[in-house]
Amino acid sequence: MYERLQTEKKSDDVKIEELSTYEMVKKINSFDKTVAYSVEKSLKSIATLVDVIVEKIKNGGRLFYIGAGSSGRLGVLDAAECPPTYGVSPELVQGVMIGGDCALRFAVEAAEDDAEDGISQLKERNFCAKDVCVGISASGCARSVCGALEYANAIGAVSAALVCNLNSKLSEVAQYAVEIDVGPEVIMGSTRMKSGTAQKMVLNMLSTSVMVKLGRVKDNMMIYMRPTNMKLRERAVRIVSDVMNVSERQARMVLAKHSYDLGEIFDQYLNNTSI
Q1: In this model, does residue 9 exceed pLDDT 80?
Q2: Looking at the annotation, which residues are catalytic?
């Protein structure tokens, strides 16, 4: 079963351990260069999934990412960035880590085979028919993730797969599948490399595109960002100044009046309410 997976194959290449350090990193870079082109082939399926997610969120749903190992960690990372970047509730986009939060820092490899783990974690989060579950698995074979998507199907929710092999079990289970055929890794089976890079790119596309379509971006800027440190407060000044076409001094006055709450400012501004 596993031997047929591209991500588990040995690359037909020179032995990396025999290369100089420079040639070694150059070789890794040459493999990495192919990832964006692999992702490009799946843009239509990614766009379709974005529209599905947006529709579900507009109707009261939430987005869940679920995965084991590196795949799960990437999902948690993407979900964690949504509240500070776009000012949404942490409940709206959630990352579910197979093996629990401890697996974010320490490998819990056996958890990948536990078909009930993902289901129980989704139930703890009151996952329901309004929601979307995106299962992330480089191999597309993780039983824990397949179990989660089967549960999503059973309760009438949307199930989607993000995998790095074609015709995987996960794609078969999912209603929507994004398959990124990255090919063999430079180190056989080390799917935190090209596969992880591809997954990170796709997750960025999903969450960013969803937030843009939900109106959280204007003029390519994060107008609902939470300016919680000095760098972000200065960015907030530039955002208000640019979008509202006012001086930086006026922008600072507006921000001070609203306690640097960009969401409050732009809710009023976009609704033509006095600020």
Answers
A1: no
A2: 81, 112
